[in-house]
Amino acid sequence: MKANIVTLSGDGVGPEVTKAAVAVLKAVAAHYGHEFTFAEHLLGGCAIDATGEPLPAATLTAAQAADAVLLGAVGGPKWSDPNARVRPEQGLLALRKALGVYANLRPLKVHAPLAALSPLKNEKLAGVDVLFVRELTGGMYFGARSRSAEVATDECKYTVGEIERVVRRAFELARGRRKHLTSVDKANVLDTSRLWRSTVNRIAADYPDVKVEHQLVDSMAMLLLTRPSSYDVVVTENLFGDILTDEAAAIAGSLGLLPSASLGEGRRGVYEPIHGSAPDIAGQCVANPTGAILSAVLLLRHSLGLETEAAAVEAAVERVLRDGPHTRDLGGSASTAKVCDAVLAAVAGSATAADMYADLANSCCG
Ligand code: IPM
Ligand code: MG
Fold first, then answer.
1. Structure pTM?
2. From the CA of 212, how far away is ligand 2's center (Å)?
3. Sequential DSSP letters for 77-139
């Protein structure tokens, strides 16, 4: 099949890990006879440097015309002056909003060979397999803001329509899994949460085969640590989902492992590792490419419908997580390129990624 993929490598370690994911997609295309084309565009800090805007019009136009968008990471100390007119993160938020990708899927699995890296005790980790569905284009991230010297406000607003579409997506996903949906809110305090909860309860009638449970977000933060294996699909609003999924990443053992897919109505999606730009290790080729490579797996699965290919890469990643080589965050000393090479070898035989990294120092955001 043919697919037009836009890459937005962004800032910090974004370009390094995106190169790994692209290398894997190229290997998949060669091995399974597909034609994938890749076009790189600017987003985030590198876009601010080049154009003054975090989401240049050319980037948005290209993303809107693409079959899928593969994103690295945005942000870094260079652009974090709180008084700056524009910030890299605004580019990411504007992109999500403009593409209408309201459902952010963040799967958490604990890979058995890495259990020792988790801060949780081993016996808590067996069978952990949670799919977070984070609402991505509403809530406090997109509400009206105000700021004066003495007071600041951030409005949190949700419409029934915004809640309903992401909750329905979560019910559908639960149906294809263990049929257990946990909805997380703060309905004992917030009106948006009370609307969220009543909407979930109304929609539940259409999914009698799915067991629904409500949790308050503070309690859920604790339950995720005390009994993570009791959850299947967890649906929640934007801010709560942002926070809980970083907690989930820590449970997995490294922030570098988790992928995400952001989906809207059609097949097009935005795929990105959940880690940030990690400026402290950027440009050294030591970042863990697993989250980015697993994001490419989600791209194959959700935007291109290539399940065989997705499963093959997933199995290759599993093998490398089990046998190594491992990057620093997993206790190893391998480079990003070495890990990528190992995944490529497991997918396709004998490709090599090392030369793809040679120009890192010269990359737009390197
Ligand atoms: C994430 C990130 C972003 C978010 C930031 C960079 C705006 O933390 O994707 O989780 O909060 O959505
Ligand atoms: Mg986050």
1. 0.94
2. 26
3. GGG--TT-S--HHHHHHHHHHHHT--EEEEEEE--GGGGGGSSS-GGGTTT-EEEEEEE-SSG
For residue range 131-158, list pLDDT tens digits in order.
999 999 999 999 999 999 999 999 999 9
Instruction: For residue 274, report the distance from its CA to the centre of ligand 2, in Å.
Output: 7
Ligand 1 centroid to Cα of residue 73, in Å, is 9
Ligand nearest to the CA of 80: 1
- Considering only CA atoms, which residue is closest to atom 6 of ligand 1? 89
Q: Catalytic residues, which ones?
A: 141, 186, 218, 242, 246
Domains annotated on the chain, with CATH: 1-104+258-366 (3.40.718.10), 119-252 (3.40.718.10)
Q: How many residues does the chain have?
A: 366
Task: Specify whether the CB–CB gap between 23 and 344 falls below 8 A.
Answer: yes
Q: Which residues have a Cβ under 8 Å from the Cβ of 283 and sit 6 or more positions away? A: 16, 360, 361, 366
Rounded distance between C-alpha atoms, residue 333 and residue 240, angstroms: 34
Give me the chain's average pLDDT, please.
Answer: 94
